[in-house]
Amino acid sequence: MKNYIIHDAWNIIEEGFLPEYNRISESIFSIGNGYQGQRANFEEGFGGETLQGSYMAGVYYPDKTRVGWWKNGYPEYFAKVLNATNWIGMTLIIEGEKLDLHTCQVKDFKRILNMQEGFLERSFIAILPSGKQLRIKAQRFVSIVQKEIGTIKYRITPLNFSGNLDLTLFLDGDIKNEDANYNEKFWENIYQNVQAETATLTIKTKKTGFSLCSATTFEIFQKGNPITLETSPVQRDKYVGHQLRVPLVQNEETTIYKFVAQVTSRDYPAKDLITQAQKALQDAFAKGFETLKMEQAQAWAKKWEDSDITIEGDIAAQQGIRFNIFQLDQTYTGEDARLNIGPKGFTGEKYGGSTYWDTEAYCLAFYLATDAPEVAKNLLLYRYKHLPKAIENAQKLGFKNGSALYPMVTMNGEECHNEWEITFEEIHRNGAIAKAIFDYVQYTGDKSYLADYGLEVLIAISRFWAERVNFSEEKQKYVMLGVTGPNEYENNINNNYYTNKIAIWCLAYTNEIIGFVKGTQPEKLQALFEKINFQEEKECAKWYDIVQKMYFPYNNALRIFMQQDGYMDKEQILVKDLDKSNLPINQKWSWDRILRSCFIKQADTLQAIYAFENEYDIETIKRHFEFYEPRTVHESSLSPCVHVVLASKLGLKEKAYELYLRTSRLDLDDYNNDTEDGCHTTSMAGTWMSVVQGFGGMRLKNDTVAFSPIIPEQWRSYTFKIMHRGSLLRVRVSKENVLLENLSDNVVNIYIHDELCTIEKNSSLMAKGK
Amino acid sequence: MKNYIIHDAWNIIEEGFLPEYNRISESIFSIGNGYQGQRANFEEGFGGETLQGSYMAGVYYPDKTRVGWWKNGYPEYFAKVLNATNWIGMTLIIEGEKLDLHTCQVKDFKRILNMQEGFLERSFIAILPSGKQLRIKAQRFVSIVQKEIGTIKYRITPLNFSGNLDLTLFLDGDIKNEDANYNEKFWENIYQNVQAETATLTIKTKKTGFSLCSATTFEIFQKGNPITLETSPVQRDKYVGHQLRVPLVQNEETTIYKFVAQVTSRDYPAKDLITQAQKALQDAFAKGFETLKMEQAQAWAKKWEDSDITIEGDIAAQQGIRFNIFQLDQTYTGEDARLNIGPKGFTGEKYGGSTYWDTEAYCLAFYLATDAPEVAKNLLLYRYKHLPKAIENAQKLGFKNGSALYPMVTMNGEECHNEWEITFEEIHRNGAIAKAIFDYVQYTGDKSYLADYGLEVLIAISRFWAERVNFSEEKQKYVMLGVTGPNEYENNINNNYYTNKIAIWCLAYTNEIIGFVKGTQPEKLQALFEKINFQEEKECAKWYDIVQKMYFPYNNALRIFMQQDGYMDKEQILVKDLDKSNLPINQKWSWDRILRSCFIKQADTLQAIYAFENEYDIETIKRHFEFYEPRTVHESSLSPCVHVVLASKLGLKEKAYELYLRTSRLDLDDYNNDTEDGCHTTSMAGTWMSVVQGFGGMRLKNDTVAFSPIIPEQWRSYTFKIMHRGSLLRVRVSKENVLLENLSDNVVNIYIHDELCTIEKNSSLMAKGK
Questions:
Q1: Is pLDDT at B180 greater than 90 in this prediction?
Q2: At what angle do helices B681-689 and B653-664 cross, to 10 degrees?
Q3: Catalytic residue (one of A488, A635, A676, A741)
Q4: pLDDT above 80 (res B661)
Q5: At A57, is the pLDDT very low, low, confident or very high (cuts 50, 70, 90)?
Q6: Are strands A704-707 and A748-752 parallel, antiparallel or unpaired?
Q7: How far apart, in whole angstroms, are the C-alpha atoms of residue A278 and residue A276?
Q8: Which chain A residues contact residue B635 at CB under 8 A?
């Protein structure tokens, strides 16, 4: 754990240069716009520890699988998020000395991520080995208004000398992924060109054939006016730019504006890329940096208006939650249904892939509540479009009959993970994808989604469950053997409670939706049945039978559903009784020891109770929480949030707050010592969930939103906003009361502490605190 | 499955050149002497599919581990058997045309492995592209008398021309392992030198620093006399040799003799290697090829005298069993306690490592019965010497208190396998190592081994079991969680019957041996206890408690011990009811499907019954065999032999014979389509076991050997020999009777069909067949 980020409500601030934390800061201070993203690398380059990283959404490379021992069914490749053209680059040589913070003395270093307006700022004084001093101020952003555009304002003031700056502004496409399995480069050169003041570079991925065209131009100002300088072109393989000699005058500021437009063959025919990039570039250049920056601030203001959470009395928590919201909004905008939410967003390349069950189980709720329904719908359509691949994937594993198994990790719908205990056995992911359909429809009321898209996915998933279970003659029940549950510290277990539970929920829900569509759009149902050769009577009856006769391990003495068969055979120790030197167990223990211990990586049985809370009475929830929470080590970033929600429901304020702290500043404080590889983007939705569903107690009751807020002792108040069915609600919770504001022109009904209330349009309502 | 090897009692014969099977033949026709081995590559090289392979026992390389996903506790490297200097090499260029069977027409090709005399022979007529015809006859062997020596006799007769042969005789150390994880070369150059008629090359392994010095000389004969030719030296990096121009005369034979001596730094100080190699080389050269070959034949005759098995009426079975014995004797001689029996012997480099549990569970019985007791003792001492590493290995996995976990795969005592479900969980290997001590002492009567070596190993293994189990409060029994049994088609299961069984057997046996040593060598016991800080009262009591309260899954209705917890929850299908297109399931099914099926890769519960047969009455054995055999797919080469032994005991002749066929010609007929990578050397001991313990019904009863022979319908008779406590016994089983011959000068007591008989020295006894 680190503690070097300065606490501030709206900004992420690093003061003083900490090269040993530079890779961490590069992750934390990343900027993105859902289309492209950039780690907080230095424009002028850095000779010290750095991971130069620029990423384009949806552009990936199928890196040949690396395994120790091949298992039948493993995929041929792992889809890597591609490190792409370095568009921020500039080389500054001052009278023969290169500006590089690795070799300078650095003073007054400050790096700020301005979350309110969406830009990155950096300022410092560099003292070159010769003693020359320069003040640098750099600002940059990728535009959330013009997604193709990234722009930089880079100011230089010589403080104790006048002299020449030899400046190279460049685009560098000769990039290698740090985690390439076989140390290959993934890009090849397609086109490069340098004109008087623009440079253009097109590179193309091997195998997948994605083309990326980047075009750049620049402008240099002195004394408030653009100046014209002689430029010479620079080119080498996959590298284009301009060289200029800029005269610097002591104490006078020179400003370099760099504009870059990047377009890909995902959006345009390859032949049009250069034209499209030039067009976007000229538009941006015409507007200029300050106008683009103003547009950026306005657009972010709009985003915050819908999604901000404020916390009074706890500046660290305030900064944490805003950082999480900011990163989520930077990562996914919902404009492009081909995209999804990568585990590290645009902040790093580790793990690769773009889509995990995180999306449905953790992120969907955030986008549903803070954005237009289309955003969440696109997340669902993403899976709908991958259905044929999911069916193919199941076929590879021996399933027939149109069963679908969605991949554990994917980019284009194909599985790309390769650990048998996860790839083949962590099948509960299928359940989260089905449950997301329920959640979306329940939240938005968009029942048309079911007949048009949802039911086809539900049936394919239900068919999978029906094939995957088997009837145990011994138990006279259906069992599900050889699975890995959400708790990945158990592998190849039998009858994981969560998996069995979500499986029968899927089967029952699919039967229900078949009934619903039959009643509302029978002709669509018929067409679907024909398309997928559905044997209604037989298949539905089988599903019903499984729902009735599914086996769930249960301990009669404890009155607890067991996480899996045989769980109580384990030595029962609590995390608190473990010597601290054992933690985290995933770094200290060998895998077999972890597996046979009772310790739980992340919410598992409790994940089921969280997902299907209404089916359990409060005493049952309490018993399960009290049993499982003390055995949970929370070594997944996805774990604490679920426990926060349940602890809040049980009124365990202290516990909820303690767990909240583990999620909200995970990356800012580098809890797990791995933020240098990128931020834990998807788990950031868990922080939002902790506040809104946890402390705020937000639930849906049919078509209505319900709140049962509590407030941690450490906070004075907190507020959050919810968009629900076209109405924007603001909830302010203080120790004394709950203020509910209806910021919309509709009358809104809500539950507050289980009491149904009506709030007139643009009015508010005050309830007592709890 | 292939069927191209010609059936013959003493020879392995390939007739007609089958380049598509060349890699398979290279494995099958391999030669070795326990010190070095050589695949049946062509001396003149081959442009087609080939795996050039020369191996030196005990010379390995720690190849950096390759994994997809790292798990804590994985070893840093996998020990690879090293492909070493190609010593057989010669290049033949006839009037500008290279002799290469890949580019010639080949006639009358014949390859023979003469098992009786221990050499490889090859003859063919090559028609070069120019039409020139040559007859070639090549013989070679590595000497089992002078282990450092390999020698070749290569005869060339031009059939339709006279002309010049440009001959290069060389040693090539610029060798790469086919299965190098990172495509590296493992050898570096140390010394190379070419003199008038000798060439010397020393290469050294990276990291491990093993030096291998090879020295070669030659002699060329025409018309029965040596001829002298001008030679020129040839050298390049790690390559030394001589070039000569040999005049060939039509229809006259030219004979090339090549002699090679190879010595390593395992046996001599590095500085002496060249001298030692030269010395061995000169000795061999002085003897000449024919003398060396005669010595070889005599030495093999002696080996066969003690270990031959004959089968009348089934030439394929005869060839199969001799091939297996021949390969076992080629692989391990027991002279060097630092060596062990690699899974592929000297016939290939796949899998690497040298030592698996195969040694103790399968091979030991063969060497005990066919060789001097020292041979088997050296196999045991190998593990004794590795005890400190086994304790270290257990410590890495979190065990304390002197517990030992022997590695799954090793070269020097360190674990080098890296699949968590095997490396960390297939812990039953520890049991086999303990059981081998019992088997050795029971067979040889060498009880001194216990106090000197055995007990220390037994205690360390027992300590492991005592730490590895835990007491289940739920079951009020000790359980063993998270293991992989011998049946590797189940991973991370609980309470594997075999593992639990062998664990408590170890605990009980160790307690018994502590008592024995206390009664016989109390001072040695005391010294040992002090050395290992043994708390006798406490530890022995704990072990006793575990023995009493170990949990064994049992099905009351079936009266069957279950292979593991939950086995009967699986869908119960029999192999015979599976559509053949599913077999072998390890090639057709994804891993998860295999894991959740009821199908058994290899004997598991039956392995326990085999190991502890005396503890089960015949009805119990029958019930278990009838339950498990129909569920076993025998997709391990180690499986059928155990079933043969039990089937024979149960009088199921047909079943026993059917299963025997799966083991005896596994490599000769390339059953598993993988002989090209090397032979299944360790499982060859299973074939021996099938005949002797299976059909022959050999068992030990205290200090006495017992036989209960049956004979398959397909055979007229079979014979085998057993060395036991200094007496050589020959057993001949025919349909009518059993002839027992005592070939020794001792009076021998044996059981035949449970009846105790005495056979006078050098006499025989006839019993009725069964």
A1: no
A2: 160
A3: A488
A4: yes
A5: very high
A6: parallel
A7: 5
A8: none
pTM of this prediction exceeds 0.90: yes
Does the pLDDT value for residue B353 go beyond 80?
no
Contacts of A472 in chain B (CB under 8 A): 568-570
Residue B770 reports pLDDT greater than 80: no
CA–CA dist B140, B190 (Å, integer): 28
Residue A568 has its nearest CB partner, among B397, B474, B590, at B474
DSSP letter (8 states) at residue A690: I
Residue A494: list chain B partners with CB under 8 A.
566, 569
If you average pLDDT over residues B275-304, what whole number do you get?
98
Q: Which amino acid is at B139?
A: Q
Considering only CB atoms, which chain A residues are within 8 Å of B66? 66-68
Q: From B558, which residue of chain A is nearest by alpha-carbon distance? A: A474
A417 pairs with which residues across the strands? none
Find, in chain A, the residue whose alpha carbon is nearest to that of B595: A482
Q: Are A729 and A741 in contact (CB under 8 A)?
A: yes
Specify the 3-state DSSP secondary structure of A717: strand
Q: Which of A428, A591, A601, A635 to mutate to test the interface with B (most CBs of B within 10 A)?
A: A591
Please tell me the least confidently modeled range out of B17-26, B341-350, B398-407. Answer: B341-350
Count CB atoms within 10 A of the CB of residue A414. 19
How far is Cα A171 from Cα A194, in angstroms, rounded to an integer? 11
Task: Give me the pLDDT at residue A503, please.
Answer: 98
What's the DSSP call for residue A7?
P
Inform me whether the pLDDT recorded for B504 exceeds 80. yes
Interface test with B, best of A179, A430, A550, A590 (most B CBs within 10 A): A590
Nearest-CB residue to B66 (from A66, A398, A492): A66
Q: Which residue of B has its CA nearest to A494?
A: B566
Helix axes A522-531, A497-520, angle to 10 degrees: 130
Q: Is A577 helix (H, G, I), strand (E, B) or coil?
A: helix
Burial label, B220 (beta-carbon count in 10 A; 0-12, 13-18, 19+) = buried
Give yes or no: A488 in active site: yes
pLDDT tens per residue, range A686-704: 999 999 999 999 999 989 9
ipTM score = 0.94
Q: Give A411's pLDDT tier (boundaries 50, 70, 90).
A: very high
pLDDT over threshold 90, residue A671: no
3-state secondary structure of B383: helix
